[in-house]
Write a structure and sequence with these properties.
The chain is an all-alpha fold and about 100 residues long. It contains four helices and no strands.
């Protein structure tokens, strides 16, 4: 398969980042520095999305992990794993309680 398994969405994200003006036309309180930081973040997200798309399409991008990590806080993976574990634990606890009640 060739690139584009997600319809090249990474390019759309990159385009949006390029199109965002530093000042909002409807709200004078939007800080230009905040928008500039967000635009930079979107470009990083676009790079990570591109790597994911290429790997999922079979074309390969050896830097996927680094590109994803560049978009996230250092503890994001740990927090996601903890949240998933807590959800799984809650489901398992509920199933055990139902099984015990059915005896």
């Amino acid at each position: 398969m060739s690139g584009g398994s997600y319809d090249y969405l990474s390019f759309k994200i990159d385009d949006m980042a390029d199109c965002i003006p530093l000042h909002s036309s409807c709200d004078n309180h939007v800080r230009a520095s905040l928008r500039a930081a967000f635009k930079k973040h979107l470009h990083l997200v676009a790079e990570a999305c591109h790597a994911i798309e290429w790997n999922d399409s079979g074309d390969g991008d050896d830097d996927e992990i680094a590109k994803i990590e560049a978009c996230l806080p250092r503890d994001a993976e740990l927090r996601a794993a903890i949240e998933e574990a807590e959800t799984t634990l809650a489901s398992l606890t509920a199933a055990i309680e139902r099984a015990r009640a059915a005896k």
